[in-house]
Fold:
Amino acid sequence: MQWMLRFLFALALFFNAACAATNPPTVRQLPSSAEAVYGYQVERLSDGVHSLNQGDGFYLQPRGNVGVIEQSSGIVLVDSGGSPAGAEQVIAFIRSISDKPVTAIVLSHWHGDHTLGVSRLLQEWPQARVISTQPTREMLVSPDADRYMPGDDAQANARYAADIQEGVSFLRQASEDQNLHEADRAGFAQSAREYEQFGREMTTARRVAPTETFESTVTLQDRVRPVEIRFLGRANTSGDAIVWLPRQRIVFTGDVVVSPIPYGFNSYPGDWIEVLNDLKALDFVVLAPGHGRPVLDGIYLDRLIAMLTDVRVQVAPLAATDLNAEAASAQVNLDAARDAFAGEDRWLRRWFRNYWKDPIVSSALREARGQPIVQGAE
Ligand SMILES: [Zn+2]
Structure:
């Protein structure tokens, strides 16, 4: 079952979340290739500030959101598009609004759905700075990331490609499993189509090391749209960067905030709560998450904070037992939170458990036991 675990983790990295709200008129689809099953849509957040996101629908959406911020001398990007094809859409959008070059690409964290567009963007704008925290850079240059994204090792890339094909087969079989509910079969069918496209996109994808790192804050000065890149602490990964526009009061969170279902593998629940409180304290006007559509208030943050707090409270007494993560998860009751995040949607409820409850209990258990939480471990 090893491939299955790896597959589920890889799948988790690329799962998108999207708000179920109807689209306001600011949303428009960006053109993509004719055979594409998924692509970006764009939303204007403020003058010169846009979010590219995957919109509604929660399947296997392998592209993290991209923030596009126009400064006087160039464009600053928050994340890169998840693949060369994703970067193509980012490039086409930038060309449609400005002649300026991309001067900086901020990587919110190491996961491929946020970093694998960099190589294509640098072909277009070789002078662009690529900025991340040190932990993010360390992971991107480490062979530990070979299981989750292509790099320079041809053998590792071949294994990765084979894993994707196994994943596609698994999803197709699940989509035909008559023991499953119709809604689940439909979800697996759509996911299989998306994973196939993803596999094609990965054949040209290569991860690239950031050109510079920062410790706590770096500011990209501008008269109208200064950009502050900050490390608030560990949260979803060991090196999550957030991007704050103090003049527009817009924050790009990377996967510190993902809707409608957060992602809990190898994360840091206690520190994460503090980071979420810091985000709240920014008193933002718009919060653009790592996946899903932008939000205009702190309600979703409050729900995340309450749920993480609850997980830690329920896990604390289990730390002294010899329960493994799976058994511990069975002892933890997140039914109310599941209803709040996933509603009655069968498909969402399934992934709330697979991508949130089980992994976040595992992370919280490690935290409570004082065991290390290692990126890419689960
Ligand atoms: Zn992501």
The chain has one domain: 2-145+205-369.
